[in-house]
C-alpha cells in the first residue's frame, strides 16, 4: 500500500503545532499501525529530518500508552489499541490523519505524545485499598460472590489508555474512574475506603479539568477493553451513598 499521512507535529508543549503531510510507500497489510509509523521514522531519519514522537511500550494491548487519534477516532477504526491495529484496516491510496489525544487534561508534550499523568493522580487520590491481602493464596481465601468477582475482573481490564476521554465531547474521564471504582467496590477488600475513594477520585478528576458525563456513550464505543457504560452508574451511585454517609 502507498499512503498519505497527515500528522500533528508540535515541537514542545508551548509551541504552535500543525499538520504536516508525509508519503509512505510499500506498507504491508500485516504491519501494525506503529510499525508503519516506525517505517516513516526510518525514512525521516535517513533524510536527516526529525522523527515523529509517539508513545508506546508493550505493543501488546496491555500498557495503554499508544494513544493516537486516527482519522478522528480514538485508536482508529477497530475496537482495539493502536498497537493492535493492523494496516489491513486501510486501503492503498488512503489518506490517514494522525493526531494526539484531544483533551485539555492531557496536554501535548511533543508531536503525538500527551501527558496522561492526570490519570495517575486520580488513582493516587483513591484508587487503592488499605487491606493487607498477603500473598495470592491468602487473597484468594477471602470469599467473594462469583458474579461480583467476575464483574470486578472484567472492569479491571481497563488499561488507562485515555481513549474514553479523547472520544468524549465533554473530555470526561468518568468511564476510566467508573472502571476503577467498580473494580474495587465489588470486592470485600475494597469496602473500607469505598466512600472516601469515590469522593476523592471525583474531586481529583474535576480538579484536573476533565468534564462531566452527560451519557453520550462515545467513551464505551471507543474503549479497547469494552468497559461498559454502567460503571458510570455505579460511580454515581457510590457517590450518592458516600454523600448520604456524610462525606
Ligand atoms: S475505560 Fe477503556 S478507554 Fe478508558 S482508560 Fe480504561 S481501557 Fe482506556
Ligand atoms: S503499546 Fe501498550 S497498549 Fe499499545
UniProtKB/TrEMBL annotation:
Span of domain 2Fe-2S ferredoxin-type: 1-102
InterPro entries xrefs: 2Fe-2S_ferredoxin-like_sf, 2Fe-2S_ferredoxin-type, 2Fe2S_fd_BS, 4Fe4S_Fe-S-bd, 4Fe4S_Fe_S_CS, Beta-grasp_dom_sf, Helical_ferredxn, SDH/FRD_Iron-Sulfur
Cofactor note text: Binds 1 [3Fe-4S] cluster.
Enzyme Commission identifier(s): 1.3.5.1
Catalytic activity: a quinone + succinate = fumarate + a quinol
Enzyme class: oxidoreductase
Keyword set, alphabetical order: 2Fe-2S, 3Fe-4S, 4Fe-4S, Iron, Iron-sulfur, Metal-binding, Oxidoreductase, Tricarboxylic acid cycle
Cofactor list: [3Fe-4S] cluster; [4Fe-4S] cluster; [2Fe-2S] cluster
Cited Gene3D superfamilies: 3.10.20.30, Alpha-helical ferredoxin
Domain 4Fe-4S ferredoxin-type as annotated: residue spans: 149-178
Family per record: Belongs to the succinate dehydrogenase/fumarate reductase iron-sulfur protein family.
Name this polypeptide is given: Succinate dehydrogenase iron-sulfur subunit
Provenance organism: Nocardioides lentus
Amino acid at each position: 500500500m502507498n499512503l498519505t499521512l497527515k500528522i500533528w507535529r508540535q515541537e514542545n508543549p508551548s509551541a504552535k503545532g500543525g499538520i504536516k503531510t508525509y508519503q509512505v510507500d510499500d506498507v504491508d497489510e500485516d504491519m501494525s499501525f506503529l510499525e508503519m509509523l516506525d517505517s516513516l521514522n526510518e525514512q525521516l531519519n535517513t533524510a536527516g529530518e526529525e522523527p515523529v514522537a509517539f508513545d508506546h511500550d508493550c505493543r501488546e494491548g496491555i500498557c495503554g500508552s499508544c494513544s493516537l487519534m486516527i482519522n478522528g477516532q480514538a485508536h482508529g477504526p477497530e475496537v482495539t489499541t493502536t498497537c493492535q491495529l493492523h494496516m489491513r484496516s486501510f486501503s492503498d491510496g488512503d489518506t490517514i490523519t494522525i493526531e494526539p489525544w484531544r483533551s485539555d487534561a492531557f496536554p501535548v508534550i511533543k508531536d503525538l505524545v500527551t501527558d496522561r499523568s492526570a490519570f495517575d493522580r486520580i488513582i493516587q487520590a483513591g484508587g487503592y485499598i488499605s487491606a493487607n491481602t498477603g500473598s495470592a493464596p491468602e487473597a484468594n481465601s477471602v470469599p467473594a460472590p462469583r458474579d461480583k468477582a467476575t464483574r470486578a475482573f472484567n472492569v479491571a481490564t481497563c488499561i488507562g489508555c485515555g481513549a474514553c476521554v479523547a472520544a468524549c465531547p465533554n473530555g470526561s474521564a468518568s468511564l476510566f474512574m467508573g472502571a476503577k471504582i467498580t473494580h474495587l467496590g465489588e470486592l470485600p477488600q475494597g469496602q473500607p475506603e469505598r466512600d472516601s475513594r469515590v469522593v476523592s477520585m471525583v474531586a481529583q478528576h474535576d480538579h484536573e479539568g476533565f468534564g462531566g458525563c452527560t451519557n453520550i456513550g462515545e467513551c464505551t464505543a471507543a474503549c479497547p477493553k469494552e468497559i461498559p457504560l454502567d460503571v458510570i452508574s455505579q460511580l454515581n451511585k457510590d457517590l450518592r451513598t458516600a454523600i448520604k454517609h456524610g462525606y
